[in-house]
Write a structure and sequence with these properties.
Organism (chain B): Acidithiobacillus ferruginosus
Number of strands of chain B: 18
CATH topology of chain B: TIM Barrel
Radius of gyration of chain B: 23 Å
CATH class of chain B: Alpha Beta
Number of domains of chain B: 1
Protein name (chain B): FMN-binding glutamate synthase family protein
Distance between the termini of chain B: 69 Å
Low-confidence stretches of chain B: none
Distance between the termini of chain A: 74 Å
Shape of chain A: elongated
Helix content of chain A: 10-25%
Helix content of chain B: 25-40%
Strand content of chain B: 5-15%
Oligomer: heterodimer
Structural class of chain A: alpha/beta
Bound molecules: flavin mononucleotide, iron/sulfur cluster
Shape of chain B: globular
Number of strands of chain A: 11
EC number (chain B): 1.4.-.-
Strand order of the largest sheet of chain B: 5-15-14-12-11-8-7-6
Keywords (chain B): Oxidoreductase
């Protein structure tokens, strides 16, 4: 099974997902193409095997949701929650992504060549996200671990209530959220950024790590307010 | 002369209703600390409850069943709407979702063992699935919460049902909370948090915002698990009539409604006591909603929040619930608020000093948030958690669940039912006007339902 083609005009999301969940043998790493997605939801959700999936067109909500091992390419725009809770593997959106892209992802790499909507990387738990364009407000909200690279601008309240995730922004930041602050870039940051841009693909090689700012948590919300133990 | 005159005077002790002792304490405490009180368990004030209803046992017009000889079925099936593998339980009494983090791993194991023994389900919580609970539970419900701590597709596939948590009765509209002393390295690792932080989790889901989105989210969970597992939606009781309708529209197989008396491991007291409606009122609204949509029997209803006894369960079922869920009662069966804990030789060892250390006594404790549970239940402390041994906890909980179930069948038989699910509203009357109005059940001795016909 080298090249497998599906057409969503003829086959349902259920049938395709069922095939992707059960009919791919380990180690075969086939290439699967899905035509005519037409904004359908939950395409290629719950993959758990090494394979390459190319979706030719726009996808709805939760495309490649909870992805494990697979490499999914969306040749179009993606709806809400693309690659949400991804564990491993790679999801690449050639167009733009809607809200909550990569929400709570524990691992893997999500690349969005265009812009991402609100709450990109919300509750991130260890995954990496590279956005070629700009991200909307409340991105990286409560992000716990992992890295978000934003080559364009960031909307309001970036990194609100951040834990240990780190955000790199090249462009303008409309405003930082509670407890987020700009920090100096270290040698490690340069290396991390360089490696992420490399992994994202050749079109990202024009970005220089030194042009980015590092945003991380000031950690002042990690504990109840400092006065909590007062006793008057 | 003056002095003796003073001491002869009577001390005035006219207590104010609005500024009684507890209100004074509250204001003084706020002034001293500058921070609201956080505590565990549920609402402490009295609200209309199942105690305000009684059954009309069989007599002339109905025929009772023989208490010991005739069978009374308790089998309960949840998730018949869309799931290819509905959950089958021997009894309609389930163990509520309580997080690993709030509870120790030992407790999680005890819950699983007892639930499996009596043929019911346990539920994970805001901290992911532990191997202890998966291995010990025959039927395990996996929660999908706003925080998504430790949430992953492997555990999703190993679960028997999935519960999307929108809210809890103790704190509808609030997120989770786990104070630093309970965030030990294992808890921290499971939740991807730095050890020791005061964790306050999100109150909104990260990847959907309204009921239309929820429908797609539920669809995603079904796709990922190949439409096998029932999907529950859990809501804290507030605008229950509408919430239940929206959850049904969103595609839930089972709806869990948690009333304001429901327990928690840690929440602001003002939240516990002042947000949400009583379980009794919520149950009736939930049943109304299902009946209104002609979904009763298709979508199952689990009610929780202050369920303690077999009588509570029987009343809940009679009002239209398919099953109940218990949190606080389960903890109490394990020894919460008891004077002692049980040592390895079976001897009872006093916990009085440890209650004192956290500023309370057995019978009054609601200090789960401190992580210093004197009887080893809601703790992550290596030393304290030894006080609850899984086999003893499991035995006690099995006894409790069996007792509750026997009480349930006793009442059902007395009402002439050979299946607990045949209990009906007509079997009940109310003792107070409030309960009659909330439950839509006539006041005892009358045919009067206050506000009948009004929703
Ligand atoms: C210690 C403790 C921890 C809890 N943790 C969770 C949780 O993680 N997720 C959740 O949905 N509900 C949680 N709850 C609420 C219960 O699932 C349930 O709604 C409630 O306990 C039912 O009411 P009852 O305690 O009066 O039986 C918790 C309750 C307790 C007492
Ligand atoms: S005894 Fe333990 S479980 Fe019970 S209220 Fe106190 S701290 Fe919580």
């Amino acid at each position: 099974m080298e090249n497998i083609k599906f057409d969503l005009k003829a086959t349902s999301v259920r049938e395709i997902n069922k095939f992707l969940h059960h009919e791919i043998a380990d180690g075969t790493a086939p290439k699967i193409t899905i035509e005519n997605p037409d904004g359908a939801h939950n395409i290629a959700a719950g993959l758990n095997v090494n394979c390459e999936v190319e979706i030719r067109g726009h996808v709805g909500y939760y495309a490649a949701g909870m992805n494990q091992h697979a490499s999914v390419l969306v040749n179009g725009n993606a709806g809400t929650g693309v690659a949400e809770n991804m564990m491993s593997g790679r999801v690449h959106v050639r167009g733009s992504a809607s809200n909550s892209a990569g929400a709570s992802a524990h691992g893997g790499l999500l690349i969005i060549d265009g812009d991402a909507g609100l709450r990109c990387g919300i509750s991130l738990k260890g995954g990496d996200i590279v956005v070629g364009g700009s991200v909307g407000s409340f991105s990286a909200f409560m992000a716990q671990a992992g890295r978000i690279v934003i080559c364009g601008n960031a909307g309001a309240a970036l990194g609100d209530s951040l834990y240990e995730a780190v955000v790199y922004v090249k462009g303008h930041i409309k405003s930082l959220g509670a407890d987020a602050r700009v920090e100096d870039m270290t040698v490690d940051d340069h290396q991390a950024l360089e490696s992420l841009l490399n992994q994202a693909g050749t079109s990202y090689s024009t970005h220089r790590p030194s042009d980015f700012k590092r945003i991380a948590s000031a950690r002042s919300l990690y504990h109840w307010n400092a006065d909590a133990n007062q006793e008057y | 002369m003056n002095e003796s005159h003073n001491s002869d005077r009577k001390v005035s002790k006219e207590e104010s209703w609005g500024y009684d002792r507890s209100t004074l304490d509250y204001i003084q405490r706020a002034a001293a600390h500058g921070l609201y009180e956080i505590r565990g368990l549920g609402a402490k004030r009295k609200v209309p409850h199942f105690d305000d209803l009684v059954f009309l046992g069989a007599s002339m017009t109905r025929y009772p069943l023989e208490g010991y000889r005739e069978k009374c079925a308790t089998k309960t099936i949840l998730g018949t709407r869309f799931a290819s593998r509905p959950v089958e339980l021997e009894i309609p009494i389930t163990v509520a979702g309580m997080s690993f983090g709030a509870l120790s791993a030992n407790v999680k194991e005890a819950l699983g063992r007892a639930a499996t023994e009596v043929g019911t389900s346990t539920t994970t919580g805001d901290g992911g699935m532990t191997s202890e609970e998966r291995d010990s539970s025959k039927v395990l419900v996996y929660q999908c919460l706003p925080s998504r701590y430790g949430f992953n597709p492997d555990d999703l596939r190993r679960a028997d049902a999935i519960e999307v948590v929108i809210g809890q009765g103790a704190k509808p509209g609030g997120g989770g909370m786990l104070l630093g002393q309970k965030v030990n390295p294992r808890v921290a690792q499971m939740r991807t948090l730095p050890a020791g932080v005061d964790q306050r989790s999100a109150s909104r889901h990260p990847d959907w915002t309204g009921p239309d989105d929820l429908a797609i989210k539920i669809h995603e969970l079904r796709e990922i698990t190949d439409w096998e597992k029932p999907i529950y939606v859990k809501v804290g009781a507030t605008r229950t009539f509408h919430d239940v309708k929206l959850a049904v529209h969103a595609g839930a197989d089972v709806i869990v409604v948690d009333g304001m008396q429901g327990g928690t491991a840690a929440t602001q007291t003002c939240f516990i006591e002042h947000v949400g409606i009583p379980t009794l009122a919520a149950l009736r609204q939930a049943v109304d909603a299902l009946e209104d949509m002609n979904m009763k029997g298709t979508v199952q209803l689990i009610i929780s929040g202050g369920i303690r006894t077999g009588a509570d369960v029987a009343k809940a079922l009679a009002m239209g619930a398919d099953a109940v869920s218990i949190g606080q009662g389960v903890l109490m069966a394990l020894g919460c608020n008891s004077e002692s804990w049980i040592g390895s030789g079976g001897q009872h060892i006093s916990a009085a000093q440890d209650y004192l250390k956290i500023g309370t006594e057995s019978g009054y404790c609601h200090h789960c948030h401190t992580g210093q549970c004197p009887v080893g239940i809601t703790t992550q402390d290596e030393f304290l958690e030894q006080r609850l041994r899984p086999e003893i906890g499991a035995k006690r909980l099995t006894n409790y669940l069996k007792t509750v179930n026997m009480e349930l069948t006793t009442i059902a038989r007395a009402c002439g039912k050979n299946n607990v699910h045949h209990l009906e509203r007509e079997d009940l009357v109310a003792l107070t006007i409030e309960a009659a109005a909330m439950a839509n059940i006539p006041l005892a001795g009358t045919e009067w339902i206050p506000g009948n016909g009004m929703k």
